[in-house]
Amino acid sequence: MVVDDHPMWRDAVERDLQDHGFDVVGVAANGSEALARFPACRPHVVVLDLQIPAPNGVDVTAEVLRQDPSARVLILSASGEQDDVLAAVKAGATGYLVKSASRTELLDAVRRVAAGDTVFTPGLAGLVLGEYRRLSEPAVTEPDRPTLTERETEVLRMVAKGMSYKQIADRLVLSHRTVQNHVQNTLRKLQLHNRVELTRYAIAQGLDEDDEHAD
Predict the structure, then answer these.
(1) Distance CA 17, CA 39 (A)
(2) What is the four-CA torsion angle of 177, 179, 182, 188, rounded to 10 degrees?
(3) 130-157 pLDDT tens trace
(4) How large is the C-alpha radius of gyration of the chain?
(5) Fewer C-beta within 10 Å: the chain N or C terminus?
(6) Rounded distance, CA 203 to CA 135, Å?
(7) Is 38 exposed, middle or buried (0-12, 13-18, 19+ CB in 10 A)?
(8) Residues 200/136, Cβ–Cβ less than 8 Å
(9) Which long-range contacts (C-beta less than 8 Å, at least 24 apart) are formed by 84-87?
(10) Rounded to a whole number, what is the distance in angstroms from the first to the last CA of the chain?
(11) Lowest-pLDDT range, 4-8, 54-58, 87-91, 136-140?
């Protein structure tokens, strides 16, 4: 589903997605339309502008994920402001691109978000990681943190850095399926539900910090 209040932009994004094999099941010009059409359309990915007529993109994100926790929301906004980015991610957005992104970047982001990856415009990932570490500092000292294997911790560290499953598999010389299994085992141990929650946990533990200089 594509949600944007600018008709030319909305039509262009819809056309680009369709031209590259995506099935656009719905479009909307504002938050009310998006929420009214979402239950019938049940899109796997929502490409959503933040600055749309009420309810805004942050509120739509939260409500979409309340209705369907398996849905993915990719924000495509003209704003790269810190407050906007963090509000969207806290509402559950899996990705955030600014509208200066190229067509190739958008298509790649939609594919990655659909696969469960977190995707941010370059420069925004560090902002989000830093903010979540700051907000989650008390969690770092939790004494009863579940025990992960060395490999699970290694995979979790790469998840925290925003690497895709394919990138992790290539880096560790593992199959894509093996990486997925490690992630699923980690989710189960930590009693988390998806990759977004896993990324937040990893950031809270400081696992996104660069300490692998020997590679």
Answers:
(1) 21
(2) -70
(3) 665 565 554 444 445 567 888 988 898 8
(4) 17
(5) C
(6) 10
(7) buried
(8) yes
(9) 84/50, 85/120, 85/124, 85/127, 85/128, 86/127, 86/128, 86/131, 87/58
(10) 41
(11) 136-140
Q: Kindly report the backbone phi and psi dihedral angles of residue 212, in degrees, each rounded to the nearest multiple of 5, phi listed first.
A: -110, 50
* Residue 132 near residue 160 (C-beta atoms within 8 A): no
Torsion of CA 205, 181, 212, 144, to 10 degrees: 30
Q: What is the pTM of this model?
A: 0.63
User: Tokens 């141990």 correspond to what residue?
Assistant: 189
Selection from 168, 170, 89 nearest residue 126 by Cα: 89
- Among all chains, which residue has been given the structure tokens 């394919």? 166
SS3 for the chain, per residue?
Answer: CEECCCHHHHHHHHHHHHHCCCCCCCEECCHHHHHHHHHHHCCCEEEECCCCCCCCHHHHHHHHHHHCCCCEEEEEECCCCHHHHHHHHHHCCCEEEECCCCHHHHHHHHHHHHCCCCEECCCHHHHHHHHHHHHCHHHHHCCCCCCCCHHHHHHHHHHHCCCCHHHHHHHHCCCHHHHHHHHHHHHHHHCCCCHHHHHHHHHHCCCCCCCCCCC
Residue 155 to residue 2: CA distance in whole angstroms: 32
